[in-house]
Amino acid sequence: MNGKFPQHFLWGGAVAANQVEGAYQADGKGLSTSDLQPQGIFGAITPRMPGDSGIKDVAIDFYHRYPEDIALFAEMGFKCLRTSIAWTRIFPQGDEETPNEAGLAFYDRLFDEMAKYGIQPLITLSHYEMPYGLVKNYGGWGDRRTIAFFERYARTVFERYKHKVKHWLTFNEINMSLHAPFTGVGLPPESDRSAIYQAIHHQLVASAKAVKACHEIVPEGKIGNMLLGGILYPLSCRPEDLLETQRQNRDWLFFGDVQARGYYPAYMQRFFRENGIQVEITNEDRQTLRETIDFISFSYYMSGCVTADPEQYETARGNILDMVPNPHLASSEWGWQIDPIGLRYLLNVLYDRYQKPLFIVENGLGAKDRVEADGSINDDYRINYLNDHLVQVAEAIDDGVEVMGYTSWGPIDLVSASKAEMSKRYGFIHVDRDDVGNGSLERRRKKSFYWYRDVIHSNGASLKDRR
Prior knowledge:
Blueprint: E1 10-14, H1 17-20, H2 62-76, E2 80-84, H3 87-90, H4 101-116, E3 120-126, H5 132-138, H6 145-161, E4 167-171, H7 181-185, H8 193-217, E5 222-228, E6 232-234, H9 239-261, H10 266-274, H11 283-288, E7 295-299, E8 304-306, E9 316-317, E10 322-323, H12 340-354, E11 358-362, H13 380-399, E12 403-409, E13 429-431, E14 443-445, H14 447-457
Parallel strand pairs: 1-2, 1-12, 2-3, 3-4, 4-5, 5-7, 6-8, 7-11, 11-12
Antiparallel strand pairs: 9-10, 13-14
Helix pairs in contact: 2-4, 6-8, 12-13
């Protein structure tokens, strides 16, 4: 490993409000789309009934326990913590004229606690949730009026926290709306592609409006997008496989192209035309989209393969996406293929494409941890996974890629997004809670806690090249 991490590299971790906070109706919070998915992204959409409950209603109770958790992050040496603001804490139904002060005050307390330890917030405006009121009363992002509701929300939090938060993201894994439309844009799962792309267009316009608002209100701040980094390789060197791989990579790179370049790429015009997809794009929309992001952020968990003849192969479920497995890679307990070199490749692809700073805001290994008789948790598998990926980040930096920071996913165990499981653990910190909600919520340091502390303290010098 020849690369060195920059002096001001932002080491830390990433969580999401709906996966850690709990307190789902506390202090005036409204119902979000996440509250109606008690079994996760791939579960049924379930109306809330009096007396019912779901694991995310309490999650890990970060809403009440955040001082303890922030102190643990500080003990590891975090420079940065990525989390999200729950939109429904600020505007419970989404269309109110004035915000909920109790919700605003909670994030004031959270950001002040982080500031005590010198931890910079990296805040996502919408992370896999939106007010259910906007879905129920307007049709979610399918209605153009939602753009203005989101802009009001964004401007409200920019004004409130402009002296506390300097790094912002608009929509988490914005490209996943193609695969989970209710979670991404508040549309029914059976929606046709024209409806989904119209909703996505409204979201892209709203993202650009948020970028403009951030530049006006927080001029010394930076705001980026957030992509699900689903990099794909051709399964073979057949030209047909290569062309199909390019097409499928463009499915998600399209979102980065619009947000970083400020216009719809020509290949999407052909895609819309050939697939009969109708999207209303006004001249005002085109002007709005020219307000582009300052940096690219993304998640990376795995890569996959593409073939022009997919019916001949079994697919594997990954982070939202189904992919053809790579025969050269091992897989996690959940079938996610482990490809550290793919992270270096993706960093180079994105930097070559956009020439903007990059931020790795999710990367981690979900696994079933075992608590030993003495209370220790020896998660060497997680240490090896993260070590090998960070070695490749160093290589990409040595390649000349500008990387702002790295926030591992789930530095504390949390409720998984896909199936609302606690048993799929990512954290350096164990939380005593199981899949049905039993447990004391006690926090316990894992072996990886001390490993990551050393990585941060040494600015990456403690990493081992195990190739």
